[in-house]
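[Automated response] Your request has been received and processed.

Submitted sequence:
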Amino acid sequence: MLTPEQKRILKVIPHGPKILMLDEVLTTNDGGGHAVGIRLITEKDCEDHFGILPGFKMFEMVGQLGTYWLLTRTNKPKHSVMFQAIEKAEFLRLCVPGDRVRILVWADEKVKNLAHGEICRDGGREDGKPIITFSFAYTDPIPRDSLNRLIEVSKRRQQPVRFVAPAAVTP
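Generated structure:
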């Protein structure tokens, strides 16, 4: 069952309720800057993965918050945002069912379409301690109908959809 806050989030981001990895969006800095979200990790989140949250779900949490932040900041409904590259990922702690985590996303001040993400414990004896940190490049908002056409063409050709990372991120 979705909360009213999760329903509000789903009105902005293109994800469906089955993949939603955000419980709340606490703040978005409308001038650019940053966004903060919350997630309570459940047994289902860690299912079939040794009882710990898989790294790809942590990336997804940050990606969803980043999408929410970018689409509300640019006022582009019916658009999608995609990762282009993930860099400098550091897994610092395990995340298990019952952990409440704070998700942070902030824009890089020097490089366009580059942002940073961090997931930290929210509460308890390890409050504020990071679980994962990383940098990521992302696309400009893409109209969802254009993205859907691109995915369909890719499926027919049986080739992956490729996005080129910005030159500033590539070594």
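Summary generated for your ticket: Residues 167-171 have pLDDT under 50 and may be disordered. Residues 55-74 form the longest helix (20 residues).
If you did not submit this request, please reply to this message.
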